[in-house]
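Batch manifest, entry 17 of 40.
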Amino acid sequence: MTHLHCCGFSLTFLAAAVAQAPSPQAWLQARYGQQLPRMLASQVLADAQAAGLVATPAARVAMKQAFYALTGKLGRVPPYRRTDAGIRQVVATTPGGIEMAMEHEFNDSWRWADALGANTVATGDNATPNDLDTWTYVADGLQLVTFAVTGTGPSPIVDSTITIKDSQGDPVAFADTAGNQSLSLYLPAGTFHVEVGAWMNTFTTPATYEGGGYDLTITTAALNTGTPRLLVAAANGTTQVPAGAGHDVFRIALTSDSRVALSASSTGDTVLWLQRSNGALVFANDDSTIGGLSAAADVDLLAGTYYAYVTDFGGTAGLAFTLTKAVTPLLPMRDVATSPLVTDTLAGPESMRLYRLNLGFNQGVTLVTGANGAGAGDTVLSIMDRRYGLAVENDDALSGYARLSGSLPLGNWLVAVTPFPGAAGGYSLTTTVGSPYVSTPLTFGTNGVAIPATPGAFASYHVSNCTETSTRLRVPTPNGSEYTLLDQNGVGDSLPGSDWYAQAVELAAGTSQVLVFSRLAVPFAFALDVLPTLAIEASRVRTRSKEGDAAILLASLSPLTPGVNLGLGDRGLLCLPLGTIATVGLQIVGPSGIIDWAGAPPVPFNINLQQGDLHTGATWTPGFFGSWRNVHRL
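Output type: structure tokens
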């Protein structure tokens, strides 16, 4: 695939570059150009080795840290959130004769995922721009699980994304590099949802959507001890390839908020993964200041259960390691809402400092990192929900130091400070709470939104709904913005979105929050589409549903505006204005899972509606075309 390698340079140029011993940063930028943010770390190291640039462990560390720093600055996730540091194995499609789970639209949201059952292969197609496919997987807690996407059919998928969510819809892990994805991780016992998307390639003009037909193949490999073994102080293990049996997964039990030191020492190059009790990735580290190529973690964590897992960077398996643990209780973990100035130290890329931010009501908040002593110099500042789900993040708003300023709904938040590769030292964190709360309402349809011009500022928007509704968030024009959806409890049920990734979400009953930000502190004005699953698009009415479901449309189509759409579902009716006469159409969804009505629905008839049949709701906003619910299995 062209944007995986992106050579484009002559052998003469490469020879001259090596002879002049370019810096790792210069070599990476010259070698990959604008494609660098989507490169896989293991591929970069292989290319650097072929070029003779990583002959020593120190050179290898320097190249990897330069890669992580550059890709972070270019808009990719920071190193401690990466899911692609270690090798990932692409699994071929299971040979013929295996029953496959089949996709049925509408399965964009985790609420309406297609069940995998006992099948190890699922087949789907997301060639339609912004289509997402979601599958339900039940884990037994005794396996390392690999999810792999391979292209199939006459128009195979070119560049996929994989998102794993838990039973509550909270993100567990997200993988996206150039090409089709393969993601391996430990999953504790429970129900998970696997979302397959595709990349919108904005490097082309016009942008091209790289979805298509695919197989999602699931393989499992047993743990070495059946269930994760409790890590007390130290334990030995050996790395395995994703498909190989005998994986070492360790359980860490914290009875109080604590500072945890982990070190995966070995004779090779290790990567350390730290997961929450629901499997969600909390922290990842490749190289550390403690042991160079040996991974480590120097992190603050809330009380609870965590899982630690070690891989070798090269993916060859058979690397023996020792994982050590030391715990220092934080009594208590500081709340920056009542401690306006805190200072601490970051040892290196293995560090994450965590603070509580408990807000008793909707408030404006400003957080700023700065120097302390010698100074860390380059920090990343994050606000997360109480489950470690990312809400907003900033890097470099203040010449390397970070700033976040905006409005947050009441709730218990977390604030994390991490360094970029090469940064270490003291820092200060100053918090101001109590400035005016500013949140702008969103309507269903297209909304003009903006990231404020002040460096590090984020904008807060909200959308209200009477009943839970499947919907979608989308940025129609690429511009580098990011956004996060939070439900009425201040918990995010989606990953931060971007211009190439439409989020299919469940919009909870009540008021949900959408936080819009730029991690690199670049102000933007753009449109944010809030799309229901039944929508009027120009002169057409379109809904996506599962095969065999009843799709019911209640609309006034002449004139088209104002139109009123109604979805009947298992969780009640939607917020709609009260009406008396409407046009009604009923269809049973066929195998395509898509209904597209042009003009009036088939066989329309008039019906009188009683006032008690509809929620009028004071929160309804003109421009809201109500969502349809795919609930009646016939």
